[in-house]
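Model it.
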Amino acid sequence: MAVEPQQNEDVAALSFETALAELEKIVDQLEKGSVGLEDSIKIYARGEALKTHCSNLLASAEQRIEKITLGPDGRPSGAEPLDVE
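Modeled.
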């Protein structure tokens, strides 16, 4: 079953916190079984879009994190990419 693209277009505009909160609500609904089969399929697809959006936002944030470097005197002297491995 194909999901209509316009159904989840607004996901890209959501902040991480808003998308995560909506994703948590969807997971809760699916775990409780409080929605019918057709609605479950629709909200599952929405959840997938939200998960992808949150993952992309996290990856982008990780790329922007930098480690502060200190000079010989102990004072900050610049920044370098943070090695997350």
